[in-house]
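hi support,

uploading two proteins for the ticket. first:
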Amino acid sequence: TPRHIINMMVNLADPQIGDKILDPACGTAGFLVNVYQHILQANKKEGVSTLTPTKKKILDEDSIFGYDFDETMKRISIMNLMMHGIKKPNIFLVNTLSDVEPRISDNTYDVILANPPFKGSLNQAEISERFRIKTTKTELLFLELMYLALSPSGRCAVIVPEGVLFGNSKAHKRVREILLTDCRLDAVISMPSGVFKPYAGVSTAVLFFTKGESTKKVWFYKMEADGYSLDDKRTFIDGKGDIPDILEHFENRERENPTNRKKKYFFVPIKEIKERDLDLSISKYREIEHEEVKYEKPEVIKKRILELEEDIIKGLKELKV
């Protein structure tokens, strides 16, 4: 996951000292390292840490948890966290979608951040019986896992493939129903397909939701630039793109209450989303502003063509002379 996208998501979730934080598919622990640095930075005054030894011990030993099913990823995660100051990282080697221990506990984590594997599927026999959604698609199973693992009022920022937003299978609709009914879906940030190039060209979105209360309205944002070129080269432009704008307007969304759907960001009420079969793709709600093109009347165009033909014939005659 690009580091600037990780940073955006961590800022959206804003983990605090004392929060239990989870990445259920941690890879090399990019999210967890960023979370650790975010909390350390938030607890500094004039460059000096304000954390007491007890709070620092809680942060280092009982706040940050990661799971991955790949042995190499586990080793890299542990090394990465240790290099950034955590002496005993809580990284576990396990397929979190199965019933293999250590299992991720329900109603436990205050913040979840993840870019879980998607566009994949599991054998039905591998999948834990804890899931209510009947599917083998990893992107849907991970979303339900994160919902189950969140504590009441816990918040989650997760990257999903665009298909999760509008897929019409029973499993897709059930996942969106959970996000909108059992959670407050705070934001859907649609990202351009080039964000994950050259590794993948799939279109993705960031979902940010809070467990425990139903959704009244959803804040949508159409990210058009992320600070790098959107081709395979991913050339540095400014390293930011729309990200500062996203964070600013997300923080001020209630005060601004944006309703102009010709802008990059706006609210959509839950009633309208239900009327559209729980579709969460921004294209269903955003209004595209087309510039009006004024054409000349046909008789004017015809007259100009005839005049042009006369000029051409006149020019050819002069050439012959």
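and the second one:
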Amino acid sequence: FSGFDMHPDVNMGIWEAYTSSCIQTELEKADGKVMAEFVHLYPPGIPLLIPGEVINQQMIKLIAYYIKNGYTVQGIQENKIKVVNQEIIRR
């Protein structure tokens, strides 16, 4: 993960994203989508992504790496994450 940028772009505020209409999408198809929930590496509960941040390919690869290697990643169920409904963003 050399050259990894831990500063994702932010598309909207945390509360706005957290309370927006959301959909579930497969992790691998989430590139460019805006997070609707927190994704934590647990323990100790370090947020990898927060609502309003734009998920990118680097973060997808990192999360997949953690899952593959037996880490507990909260905010992902059955390889799906909650993202803001794109129709909300286009308005």
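thanks. also noticed: The helical segments are 14-19, 57-68, 86-90.
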